[in-house]
Structure prediction request, 204 residues.
Amino acid sequence: MCFLLQNVHHDAITGWLMLASMTYREKQYINSVRILDYALSKCTPEKTQFKSRLSDLHQNILRLEVFQKKGIIRSLSILYMGFVKFNKLSNLIPVELEMEVQEVFHVIPSVVYAYFLYFLCYYHSQDVEKCVVVLQNLNLTIHGNVFILPDDRFKAISYNILGIALQITGDKKSALETFKQAVELEPNSVYHSAARRAAMLKTT
Prediction:
């Protein structure tokens, strides 16, 4: 818990998502949703992705007195949107994603992971209406590259996450199509389980 609380200051959102993961694993779905609500409230337009070049807007923000007082490192942590990283065999990752960390660590764009975790919470709470809304938001996030680095690997990971959600709902056809998109973008199975999941899905 202490480690998680320290990480809420790592960047704008990642630490909160890890905390939401922990509460999800403990089946505290309402608490997890509340944490996710707070985390996503930090996803404002002035935020930038980790490793992205600072725009004129971001440079001007950093020149503001309030950020000058915080120092450059703390200020950048407020402005940056990172990705969620789960270590190999992590006990914080949702059980639905354990395949991703069987052999190596796994990273997921923060907002993509937030919507996926929302979906899991609503799914287990049997709130079908909210599941549909969250899946739509997840789909729009991926297609619009919202807070996702312009990199095929991260896009593929995002499609894999969407495919897993669709598979959970029982939409086999859409899941297979989405896994296919992930593999086309990044065929290396080290980065995601889309090919393995698709193969397993075809046998069911």
Notes: Residues 62 and 68 are 7 Å apart (CA to CA). The two ends are 39 Å apart (CA to CA).
